[in-house]
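To assess whether ligand presence alters the predicted conformation, the chain was also submitted together with MP5. Input:
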Amino acid sequence: MATTSSDLPVVLTIAGSDSGGGAGIQADLKTFQEHDVFGTSVIVALTAQNTLGVHGVHEVPADFVTAQLDAVASDMDVRATKTGMLATSELVHTVVKGIRRHGLTNVVVDPVAASKHGDALLAPEALATVRDVLLPVATIVTPNLGEVALLTGVEVTGTDDLDKAAEAMKALGPQWVLIKGGHLPDNLEAVDLLFDGERMIEIATARSASTDTHGTGCTLSSAIAANLAKGMDVPSAAQVAKDYITGAITHGLRIGAGIGPVDHGWPRRPVPPTDDAQAR
Ligand SMILES: Nc1ncnc2c1ncn2[C@@H]1O[C@H](COP(=O)(O)OP(=O)(O)OP(=O)(O)O)[C@@H](O)[C@H]1O
Ligand SMILES: Cc1ncc(COP(=O)(O)O)c(N)n1
């Protein structure tokens, strides 16, 4: 019987570990902490990773993924769940069975396929499992443009294509879709599009020149999960999360020699120098 004696909402991330601390489970738990929710985790795979790339992947056996999920969900009142790197088709099936068995709600799916350096984080044959089995249980799915192309075949080359992408993703069964336009060539704005089958809501912020963008997708989806756990509706959760990720990118941390991590703790730090001065 899941119980809680605190007002602090419990949030769960089911994802891969990033030893470099910028993406994956580590980004998710930092984001939860910054949102004042209680973070819990199910680790699906370990990566040996830093700001230069992914140097190794070690998957967790499916029965131990189930053991972690059952341990958390049988004891705690999980208010929102986020999924990230799920590695293989077997592990996607395992996670969806767990979500269904425990009746988890507010499920935010970040359909992670590859790292910013192009390292595979999902086996190619698992794409169909994500599409057919995971997306139908999603409250909201948050694909980047590469993931949209892999899952739907729709190629987005400009903001005008975002609505076509949102419609194609919605047809796969999630309640809401947030298409992330971070990889668009627009130099002025970072435009995302939220869609529930009726409402198309554009969420845009000024584009930062910072190159510290490792973990942007993980951080955005975790922030949405934290906001849903606090009781926000999906449009509010997405808008507030967008403001958080924009601040985290703009502040940057300049850690490591490659694509640096975003600054999860930015709300506690002074405003950095102008964006142009930040660009490396
Ligand atoms: N340079 C930038 N300035 C401001 N916002 C950005 C920038 N780059 C990305 N974003 C925003 O960050 C969020 C994540 O988008 P992005 O497209 O980078 O996701 P992603 O590729 O899935 O991330 P990841 O590679 O970490 O999984 C979106 O809200 C996007 O608009
Ligand atoms: C464990 C894990 N999960 C997700 C990402 C995606 O993040 P990014 O695309 O910023 O490298 C990653 N690199 N590692």
